[in-house]
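Q: Sequence in, structure out?
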Amino acid sequence: MAEELTQLLAHEMAARLRAGETTSREITAAHLARAHATDRGLHAWLTIDDGRALAEADAADAGLAAARAGGAEAVAALHPLHGIPVALKDLVSVKGGQCTAGSRILEGYRAPYDAHITERLRAAGAVILGKTNMDEFAMGSSCEHSAFGPTANPWDLERVPGGSSGGSAASVAAFQTPLSIGTDTGGSIRQPAALCGIVGMKPTYGRVSRYGIVAFASSLDQIGPFARDVRDASALLHAVSGRDERDSTSAPVPVPDDLVGLPSSDDEAASWLRGKRFGVPREYFVAGMDPGVETRIREAVAALEAAGAAVDEVSLPHTDYGLATYYIVAPAEASANLARYDGVRFGHSVRGGEDYLADYLATRGSGFGPEVKRRIMLGTYALSAGYYDAFYLKALKVRTLIKRDFDQLFDAGFDALVAPTSPDVAFRFGEKMADPVRMYLSDACTLPVNMAGLPGVSIPCGLSGGLPVGLQLIGPAWSEALLMRAARAYEGATAEAAWRRVLPPDLGRLADPAVPTPTERAAAR
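A: Exactly. Output:
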């Protein structure tokens, strides 16, 4: 029974809850048990909070019982996530809980308040299982930069799950949780979703409040959902979206109700594609792309056309500048945001005597990892006297041009753009660690969307060499409902594809206590 519950999609769990066939406690206990039993070889979690999760599950069951007493309308009024487990990336504040952002410099820190999205999840009746592993301060594309050890990919335990939200993606792909939250600064939801064969969305900048989220690059960071299908991801996005007065960048834009009304019928979902117009940016088929990835993307485009959509090749001419622009803007903002970690107010602190400057340097030197130090130095250099105009100001101007490219296509009548999410499938541990620029290129297809502040969603579209490939849909600002409808339509159009029935091959190994941890495997290489 417990194993069966973990195999269900979130909306299937919700249906059973409402029918009285199970309880939130049973669903939560099943996922907690699976997470504990299978995480040794995966390391998707930094903490699992059994006590809090079960208490929240009991509260959800009590809420459901009260709704049943109020009649069918009261039950129907419950949010689709009521009683459903969710995992949070370990940079989301949960009052009284740890919030390390994957860094030693925040080890031991306990959040004194709930993040806005934590409040929203509690209001929806969701159950928070714990915190997932991540690249330190969300800086990475592989989840190898966590100060607490890397996370593995359930499709191949010798490969990375993507990053920075690698733990959130891997936990969903491994059936340890039906839903999870990640953050996306340059692709950190969409890229791991692609590499782990699940759904992941980066909403429009400002759709979800960043209050209570540990900051990396404030003009780029955005919170979004992971799930194993589009309907579940859409419901999770609906739960966490909305205006928050505590975040000045949170937009006063209504949350679309149709995020929770996607069609259950595959045929009905696919029929939406008729008459829709999609653009395929030629610049996203970058040099060195895995041939299998390109083949799967071209097949996905053909499936959209076969379902009645019109597809045209288009150009986003400033895409080639996206990577360079991002690696000026993001490190500059990181340099400013991470200046607060000084060992005085919270987190890790080194105290060696009366020399404050020496203590400050020792705290940051021992608390930050190599990738964080690299980006702080890049950002500080770009903001320094004599280089601000030459680098940072020029990057902001190019950022405007990147956004203009997107705006012109959407103004021309395209409903959405279709592109690869990642130029590669999941790569092996250590394969790109020695070459930071090569690692940065992993996000070449996702970075421009962040620079433009637009929404993008990655959905599975097949396998290359037995590993998942992600299809990226990009829309105009505030078009999350349209993108989710398009993603659900693609799901419907390809519902009978054989690759949809393939499970991650290494799932069976996860429960073996003899399987080495990702840290042990890394040490043995």
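The mean pLDDT is 96.
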